Amino acid sequence: MAISSEKRTGRRVGAVIGFVLALLALLVGALVVWKSRHALPVVETAPVSLQRIERVTLAAGTVRPVARQIVNLDNLSAPVERVLVHVGQRVQAGQPLIQLSTASAEASVQAAELALSDAESAYQRVLAQYNQAPTALKALFLPQLNAAEASVASARSQLAQAEANEAQLTITATMSGIVLIANPNGVDADGNQTPVVEVASPAKDVVMDLSEVDAAQIKVGMTATMQTDAYPNQTFTGSVTSIAPYAELSSSGAPVVEVTVQPRGSFPVPYGYQLTCRILSRSPSPVPTVPYSAIVQNGTGYAVYEWRNGHVYLVPVKLGMTSDTAVQVLSGVAPGNRVVINPPDNLVNGEAVRTS
């Protein structure tokens, strides 16, 4: 009986020990799971949503003539005798602007006229001899007559050329417009070279320099609004007519793209004035977008981290229009997908994560 009692006691102790060990195993397993869950990166996600993208580009613009005629001193074939127009004068196409010195040209014309007169006199003498000669002898005078006639034709051609050269010494307007510069010396008060005459067309453009990022959002035909302190309480409108296909370095060394706006309706702002220009770019309909903070650099392109079933996956995307907070996604993800915003730098493609 004593042995049987000891066996029962041993079994109870073994059962208790087994239970305790099993409980410890469960606790250890739960602790491992808890630690593994809490060791996962925590990310914040946002849905890919449909919305209209709107962006306002703000820039300074300068009023410039659509077309200009510029006559520089080094392009003239003779010294300037006098300028025939004054600053602010309206001129018509073909109107004389500058009279160059004609002394040499006039001498050439006079010499050509004298040569023509001599050639015509010589021709008349030979013609008289030809007419007075007997019929049988007229053939003897034909070579002289033909030569004299050719001399007259040559003299007339030289006179026409001399007169044309003289006419070119009067510089005329190639278009109708307003005279902006009239300076016979071609040099300003500081000794810098200036045009002798500059004529600007009445039509005006507003030209602005945009950053490469801003220029990429602008399209020909977009509407611009323009304001200037010189004309308070007035807002002018215009349309984007051209976007330079290249960037140039500005005075600060930053690359800029020239964008031209053509004003609509009455536009009294003078050439050279500065305006504040606003160009609104808007998607025509709701488009798939992601928060700007979801975009990451991916080589030479862009990507987002898409969240699926507790993991994140790096997905290359093609971007469209941008606003201050959102970016249009042309490909890569679709509405309803979730993307990570402000992804950590050490996030790994395919990694398991927790969402906040």
UniProtKB/TrEMBL annotation:
Gene Ontology molecular function, alphabetical: efflux transmembrane transporter activity
InterPro entries tied to this protein: Beta-barrel_YknX, RND_pump_MFP, YknX-like_C
Keywords for this protein: Coiled coil, Membrane, Transmembrane, Transmembrane helix
Segments forming domain YknX-like C-terminal permuted SH3-like: 289-354
A Pfam family it matches: YknX_C
Stretches assigned to coiled coil: 109-172
Keyword Coiled coil: yes
Stretches that traverse the bilayer: 12-34
Domain YknX-like beta-barrel stretches: 208-251
CC per GO annotation: efflux pump complex
Similarity comment text for this entry: Belongs to the membrane fusion protein (MFP) (TC 8.A.1) family.
Name of the featured protein: Efflux transporter, RND family, MFP subunit
Protein's organism: Alicyclobacillus acidocaldarius (strain Tc-4-1) (Bacillus acidocaldarius)
